Amino acid sequence: MNRLRRLALLTSLAAYALVVLGGLVRGTGAGLACPDWPLCHGRIIPPLEPLVLIEWAHRLLASIVGLLVVVVAVVAYRSRRQWPQAVLPAFIALGLLVVQVVLGGLTVHLLLTPAIVVAHLATGMAFLASLLTTTVLATPAAQPGGTVSAGFRTLALITALSTYGLILLGGLVSSSGAGLACPDWPLCHGQLLPPPAGVAHLQFAHRLGALTVGVFILITALASRRQTPHLAKVAAATPGLLAGQILLGAINIWTRLAPVVTAAHLGLAAMLFAMLVVLVGRSFRTPLGAATSALPQPQGAR
After folding, report:
1. What is the mean pLDDT of the segment spanning 241-252?
2. Using an 8 Å Cβ cutoff, are 163 and 272 in contact?
3. In this predicted model, what pLDDT tens digit does every residue of 55-72 receive, in sequence order?
């Protein structure tokens, strides 16, 4: 494994941990435990209180990730002759880091308004995707003979983007106080459709979106069987992650948004999104083959 790939992979893992820790911050309500920024209660080392320490740990990890991203961008630039395609996503990650720092400060100063929280989450997930793309593009291309259909590339991209959108919708549900707007699962107030008043429509939209994205994920996993094995292996993991995510979504309701469960729900969503980003990246690194349907065909079909 070359140096750029190692660094990008390490930074991707750290960025993923940052997403999960951010979910714990939101789930525990620790987002404003440090009322100032970049210090915490006017100090570098904060008071030793549980919520304060969770928020402070989130900021500390964010600082470490920031330093790693700068190193990745420098190494990517120096390796531009060997891995020219990896330079752009590395510098996109660097730019998103700046945006994320600004949004992190605004999150504190604007008291966690839904728009800022969702923008912070959107940038964080795009940041993770940029680092994963850098990792994939700093990896040697697929073995000779492996091909992918244009239709599968498009399908994988649509599935990844729809998953990204669903994660942002989940962030809006959480930050708008709609997490328990439907207090039961899978129904909403014992009905198939939510009440017309209140924020239950957000929770219902999230559930409906999850159903739609789930269909895309299953179709993508099935379609991957007709592609080269290194794509099929990545796609094969997504249905299991989807099942776990649905279960955690239900447990979220049943436990009345227990912080550990909400953090796990976001963490598994980020893992699913990460797998899809890798799938898209690998599919674009694989040569196009003969034009075939992205959808699985019945046995014996010509």
Report:
1. 96
2. yes
3. 889 989 999 999 999 999
Q: Is the pLDDT of residue 243 over 60?
A: yes
Show Cβ contacts of residue 146 under 8 Å, excluding neighbours closer than 6 positions: 228, 229, 230, 286, 287
Q: What would the pLDDT profile of 98-146 be if each residue is shown by its tens digit?
A: 999 888 778 776 766 888 889 999 999 999 999 999 999 998 876 556 7
- pLDDT, tens digit, 9 for 90 and up, residues 147-158: 899 999 999 999
Q: Which two tokens stand for residue 280?
A: 């898209």
Query: Strand, helix or coil at 288?
Result: strand
Exposed / middle / buried, residue 96 (Cβ in 10 Å: 0-12, 13-18, 19+): buried
Helix 259-285 and helix 114-137, axial crossing angle in degrees, nearest 10 = 40
Amino acid identity, residue 160? A
Distance (Å, whole) CA 179 – CA 257:
7
Per DSSP, helices labelled H in the chain are 3-28, 50-78, 87-109, 114-137, 150-175, 200-223, 229-236, 238-254, 259-285
What pLDDT does 302 receive? 42
The one-letter amino acid code at 258 reads A
Whether the pTM exceeds 0.85: the reply is yes
What is the full DSSP assignment across 76-134?
HHHTTTT-GGGHHHHHHHHHHHHHHHHHHHHHHHTTS-HHHHHHHHHHHHHHHHHHHHH
**Rounded distance, CA 154 to CA 241, Å?**
21
Asked if 264 and 248 count as a contact pair (C-beta separation under 8 A), the reply is yes
